[in-house]
Specification:
517 residues, Porin, 9 helices, 14% helix, disordered N terminus, Outer membrane protein transport protein (OMPP1/FadL/TodX)
Length: 517
C-alpha cells in the first residue's frame, strides 16, 4: 500500500489520540449507522417494514404504518446480545466474547378512530393514531484482543512520522521519552528503538454504549388505501471506548546504531548524562474516550395499497442534528530496563493528555422504499435505504474554521453513499402461531476499505389471547473488516503497516410482550 503524506498524517494523528483531522469524522459516521431495532416481530423479519404497519416499530421505520392500528397497543422488548470476535494478527488468532442484556423497546400506540357521517366506516379519514416509542437503533458493545511478534517495524515509526511534520508539546514529550532522536543532518528524527528487532505487540479494545431514540409519531388511514405519518425523534448517544496498545520486550539501539544516525548524539556518548544504549523497554499507549450526544430528527412516510394484496411504502428521515461532548484521555508510558531479567525499571517516562471537546454534527439523511406482498397465509416484504455518508457535516462551536474544514473534507474523501437492503417474511402456521425469517444487509460506507455486514434472523409469534401476544426472535450477524493498530510511511520505512483481520459474530435473542386494548 502507498499512502500520500496528507492521508498518512491524518491517520497517524488519529492513532496518537489527539484532536486530529479524521478523528471526529470517523465518530460521526460511526454514530450515523443504525439497524432500526424494534419489536421482536420485525427484527425476525429482517426489519423489512417500510411497507408494513400495525407494529410500534413503525414510529421510527415508517410512521405511516401507525395508521394500520385498529386498536391501542402497549409493548415491551427485551434483548440479550453477544459479540464474539476473532482477530488474526501477525500469524496469531484470538477470540473474545462480550454480552449485555437490555430493554430495546418500550412503546404505546393510541388508536383514535375519526367520526363518520351517515355511518360510513370505510371511506375518508378512518383514524388518527398517535404513538410514543423508545427504541435502540445501534449497539456499540464490543471487545477485541490481538497480539503477535513484529520484527519489521515499531509504533515508534509512526511517532517519528508525526514528529517529522509537526512541533509542540507532543513532539517534545516523544523526544524526551528517549523514543526518538534528531538525525545528524538535522532533517527530522529517527527511532531510538530497534524498529527491526522482534517485539511483542498487543492491542485491546473495549467499547460499550448505544444509540437510542424516543419517537413521538402519528399515522392516519384514508379509506384503507392510503396511509400517511410523521414523527419527531429525540436521539441520544452514549459511547465509551478504551483502546490500548502495548509494545513489549523491545530493545533500544546499540551505540553504533545511534552513531550511524547521528554521529554527535549525546545518547551514544559514554561521558554524557544522557548516555542511552542497549536498553530493554515496554511501551504502553492507551486512549480512553467517552462521548455523550443528543439531538433530533424527523420522519415523513406514506404507504399506498394499489391492490388489497400489495403495499408500497416510502419514508424520508431527515439528518440527525447532534450536539456532541467528547472527552478523550491518553496515557503513554515507557519503562526502560538495563537487562531482560530486571523487574524494576531503571527509567520511566509518563505523559498524559486530556482532550475535552464539544462540537455539532449532522448525520446523513435517509430515503427508504419498500414493497410488501400478502398471501392467504402470510407475506413477504422487502426494503432498500439510500444513505450518502459523505454528506455528514462537522461544525465546531468555537469558529475554528480550518479544523472544521479539515474534518468535513476528511468525510468527503473517505466515505461514500451506501445501500442498505432488507427482506423478510411471515407465515401463519395456525390461528395462534406464526413463523418469521429475514435478512439484513448494511452497505459499506468506506471508499477505500472493504467490509461486510450481514444479518439473518428467525422468529416465532404467539397470540396468547384476543389481547395478549408474545414474539420471540433470534438474530445472527457477521461483520468482517481490517484495521491497523498504527500506520507508518511504508515507502520510507521499507515495511508494511501491521494489519489485523477482524471477524465479528453477533447473536441476539429478542422477546417482545404486548397487549392490545
Amino acid at each position: 500500500m502507498n499512502y500520500n503524506k496528507a492521508w498518512l498524517m491524518a491517520v497517524v494523528l488519529l492513532f496518537l489520540g489527539i484532536q486530529a483531522k479524521g478523528q471526529y469524522a470517523n465518530d460521526i459516521i460511526n454514530f450515523s449507522q443504525e439497524r432500526k431495532w424494534g419489536t421482536a416481530r420485525f427484527q425476525a423479519m429482517g426489519n423489512a417494514q417500510t411497507a408494513l404497519g400495525g407494529d410500534i416499530s413503525a414510529a421510527s421505520a415508517n410512521p405511516a404504518g401507525l395508521g394500520f392500528f385498529s386498536s391501542s397497543d402497549l409493548s415491551l422488548t427485551f434483548n440479550y446480545l453477544n459479540n464474539a470476535n476473532k482477530a488474526s494478527f501477525l500469524g496469531n488468532s484470538q477470540t473474545t466474547n462480550k454480552g449485555r442484556f437490555a430493554i430495546d423497546q418500550a412503546g404505546i400506540v393510541l388508536h383514535m378512530p375519526t367520526y363518520k357521517q351517515h355511518g360510513r366506516t370505510d371511506q375518508g379519514w378512518l383514524n388518527f393514531n398517535v404513538g410514543l416509542n423508545y427504541s435502540r437503533s445501534y449497539d456499540f458493545t464490543n471487545e477485541q484482543v490481538y497480539q503477535g511478534m513484529n520484527g519489521e517495524n515499531s509504533i515508534v515509526n509512526s511517532y517519528v512520522d508525526f514528529m517529522d511534520y509537526n512541533s509542540g508539546d507532543l513532539v517534545d514529550d516523544l523526544y524526551g521519552a528517549y523514543l526518538a532522536d534528531e538525525r545528524g543532518d538535522g532533517q527530522g528524527y529517527y527511532p531510538v528503538v530497534r524498529d527491526k528487532g522482534d517485539k511483542l505487540q498487543n492491542h485491546t479494545l473495549t467499547e460499550k454504549g448505544f444509540r437510542s431514540s424516543t419517537d413521538l409519531a402519528f399515522g392516519a388511514n384514508y379509506s384503507n388505501k392510503f396511509y400517511i405519518g410523521g414523527s419527531l425523534s429525540m436521539v441520544s448517544i452514549q459511547y465509551e471506548k478504551n483502546s490500548s496498545f502495548a509494545e513489549l520486550d523491545g530493545r533500544t539501539k546499540s551505540r553504533q546504531e545511534i552513531l550511524n544516525n547521528n554521529s554527535g548524539s549525546e545518547l551514544a556518548d559514554p561521558n554524557s548524562d544522557n548516555y542511552f544504549v542497549d536498553k530493554y523497554y515496554d511501551l504502553y499507549d492507551e486512549l480512553q474516550q467517552k462521548v455523550d450526544a443528543s439531538g433530533y430528527n424527523f420522519s415523513l412516510g406514506m404507504i399506498y395499497k394499489p391492490a388489497s394484496d400489495w403495499n408500497i411504502g416510502v419514508n424520508f428521515t431527515s439528518p440527525t442534528w447532534l450536539t456532541v461532548m467528547d472527552d478523550s484521555y491518553e496515557i503513554r508510558d515507557v519503562y526502560y530496563y538495563d537487562n531482560a531479567q530486571d523487574n524494576d525499571a531503571s527509567l520511566y517516562s509518563e505523559n498524559n493528555y486530556e482532550y475535552p471537546f464539544e462540537y455539532d454534527a449532522r448525520t446523513p439523511l435517509r430515503v427508504g422504499i419498500g414493497v410488501a406482498k400478502f398471501f392467504s397465509g402470510g407475506l413477504i416484504s422487502a426494503d432498500i435505504d439510500y444513505i450518502d455518508y459523505s454528506s455528514a457535516k462537522f461544525r465546531t462551536l468555537h469558529n475554528d474554521f480550518s479544523f472544521e474544514d479539515d474534518n468535513n473534507q476528511e468525510i468527503k474523501s473517505t466515505y461514500k453513499n451506501a445501500i442498505n437492503a432488507r427482506i423478510g417474511g411471515e407465515i401463519l402456521l395456525t390461528p395462534v402461531f406464526s413463523a418469521r425469517a429475514g435478512f439484513n444487509y448494511m452497505g459499506n460506507p468506506y471508499k477505500y476499505s472493504d467490509q461486510t455486514n450481514i444479518q439473518g434472523s428467525l422468529g416465532l409469534g404467539a397470540r396468547i389471547s384476543n389481547n395478549l401476544y408474545a414474539d420471540l426472535s433470534l438474530l445472527h450477524g457477521a461483520y468482517s473488516y481490517k484495521e491497523n493498530p498504527y500506520v507508518i510511511d511504508e515507502g520510507y520505512w521499507g515495511s508494511s503497516s501491521p494489519i489485523a483481520d477482524i471477524s465479528r459474530q453477533q447473536t441476539s435473542a429478542v422477546l417482545t410482550l404486548g397487549v392490545k386494548f
